[in-house]
Amino acid sequence: MAGFNFKLIKNPLSKENPITVQVLGICSALAVTAKLQPAFVMALSVTVVVAFSNLIISYLRNTIPPRIRIIVQLVIVSLLVILVDQVLKAFVYDVSKQLSVFVGLIITNCIVMGRLEAFAMSNKPLDSFLDGIGNGLGYAVILITIGVVRELFGSGSLWGYQIIPDSFYEMGYQNNSLMIMPPMALILVGIIIWVHRARNKELCEK
Amino acid sequence: MKFVRDFLDKIKPNFEKGGKFPWLHSTFDAFETFAFVPKTTTSSGAHFRDAIDMKRTMTMVILALMPALLFGTYNIGFQHFHSINPELSFFEGFWDNLLYGIIKILPIVVVSYVVGLSIEFGFAQWRKHEVNEGFLVTGMLIPLVMPPDVPLWQVALATAFAVVIGKEVFGGTGMNFLNPALLARAFLFFAFPSSMSGDNVWIAQKADAFSGATPLAEMMMGAELPSTSFWDMFLGIMPGSIGETSAVAILLGAAFLLITGVGSWRIMLSVFMGGALMGLTFNLFGSNPYTQIPFYYHYVMGGFMFGAVFMATDPVTAAQTNKGKWIYGILIGVMAVLIRVVNPAYPEGMMLAILLLNVFAPLIDYYIVDANIRKRMKRWKIKGGQNVQ
Fold first, then answer.
1. Percentage of chain A with pLDDT > 90?
2. Tell me: the pLDDT tens digits for B240-277?
3. Domain ranges, residue B247
4. Shared domain check, B358 and B274
5. Is residue A14 part of a domain?
6. B18 and B144 housed in the same domain
7. Angle, CA B181 vertex, CA B179 and CA B186 arms, to 5°
8. A137 within domain boundaries
9. Distance from CA of A76 to the nearest CA of B (A)
10. Which of A38, A37, A43 has its CA nearest to residue A12?
11. Does some domain include residue B386?
12. Is A195 an interface residue toward B (CB < 8 Å)?
């Protein structure tokens, strides 16, 4: 097991982050982050799907005929997504219901297809697997950040437990209902991108 | 004025490079140019010279807002005491009403200016450019579009949101595509609906027994006509956001803006035309009482007049071409009445209509300019062809 390339995991967390730098997977980032728990489960599911589809496709990469490669990739991805969906339904049914179609829509998540095309088709299995984990975690970092902010200010709770004490509400504090709506998630993603680029000048477009 | 100039000249070196506080240069510059018209001119390219610069323009708008502000202040007090004692006539207890209104409105104005200006100054220092003038007007508009009972921390949050997300991320004054004051209101409207809508927020410290519904809310509930008479609504004797109630005060401001040439008459006129157009259309086809009210009722209810005069005409976010201004204004009027009458979730359509058209203004301009270019290309080609013959 030589060449355990940790850069493959580290880079997608910040400099090549799938959401803030590659701007992929925005749709699900807006849809499932109103609460922390579904955001976390979604992030985990995507990580598993990206990692294992990368691994499998990388094993098959030399036998897949180039002209039908997309359909082969889709078959593998949908197989994994169905597995994930069934596991979620079996063990965390409530969250699975909250996520509704968005688990199925992982198939069309640009991050999955993007990594398969850009990385797994031309790299070794272990590297591809690490790349999948890295990109999944990069996605997870952003999703969980947004989930924390939205649930804390939108519902006053985290992971379903009330955080903001009742005395605050008595003093006139109110939950911010805009936080629960998708537009605020988009604005939060924008703010994260803003801060990220302000700290990493080399990411700014000329 | 001489001693102000002398004082500024004396402390100026402190803020230049190498002085004691070079990092406060933007702040100093803001105060210096506020007190005196700067002598500097654009160094390159063609430019017009005018006696009036942006700070002076903004001051004109502030002056135009004064009638609405004064009336609004008095009306807060009157509505409060009126809800306790419905027998009260408008000028009874004049000083009590005024004092109550001042106590209510002053904190909102202060919070809006302090929060907005500190963010503006902060960004200006950080980016090392001049402090933008835009917030002088925005800071006054924000209190005028708030309900009198709005919690101050919400005003602060909304102002911060509007200045940072609405303006600074796009590069500051002149770069924003949404009207910041309306954005602040829209933020509160969606974020804290309980303090921005319903029947309980439009009168300060309302007595519980009093209904407190605005004319718009009454129409929404299916009334034949608002319980307030047309002339009362025209004068502004009704509950509502602080500055929006009095059509008379707003029209005074509008006249001032038009005489000084600061506001665009095309936009104001076309917004009213759009409202009339949609109102009359509803009169023809409508089936419920709301669609049957005369179109001029829409002008005096809610924020239509205020939006048309002070919000839609914002030179940064409105359409820039003259033809574009007509389209932009008419669509605002049409959308405002449409949202009011048809959409059951939003009693007031003016805010959303203006924000929507703010988004479309650049597109409208683009097609107007594009059409003009094509027209001239065509003319040029025809001439070119004749020359060849």
1. 42
2. 888 888 999 999 999 999 998 888 899 999 999 999 99
3. 54-374
4. yes
5. no
6. no
7. 90
8. yes
9. 42
10. A43
11. no
12. no
Q: What is the ipTM of this complex?
A: 0.84
Q: Kindly report the pTM of this predicted structure.
A: 0.85
* Two tokens, residue B190: 């969606």
Q: Does B165 touch chain A (CB under 8 A)?
A: yes
Task: With beta carbons under 8 A apart, name residues in chain A contacting B194.
Answer: 174
* Percent of chain B predicted with pLDDT > 90: 38
Please report the number of interchain residue pairs, chain A to chain B, with beta-carbon separation below 8 angstroms: 22
Residue B226 included in any domain: yes
Domain of residue A164 covers: 19-203
Q: Which two tokens stand for residue B192?
A: 């804290």
Which chain B residues are closer than 8 Å to A168 by Cβ? none
A179–B191 CB contact, under 8 Å: yes
Same domain as B90, residue B177: yes
Structure tokens at B128: 């090392």
Please answer whether residues B180 and B145 qualify as being in contact, where contact means their C-beta atoms are separated by less than 8 angstroms: no
Is residue B48 in a domain?
no
How many domains does one find in chain B?
2
Residues B30 and B63 in one domain: no
Most B CBs within 10 A among A174, A197, A204, hence the mutation to make, goes to A174
> Is residue A10 in a domain?
no
Burial A112-144 (b: 16+ CB within 10 A, else e): bbbbbeebbbebebbbbbbbbbbbbbbbbbbbb
Contact A194 B169 (CB under 8 A): yes
Which residue of A172, A181, A187 is in closest CB contact with B165?
A187
Instruction: List the single residue in A with minimal CA-CA distance to B169.
Output: A194
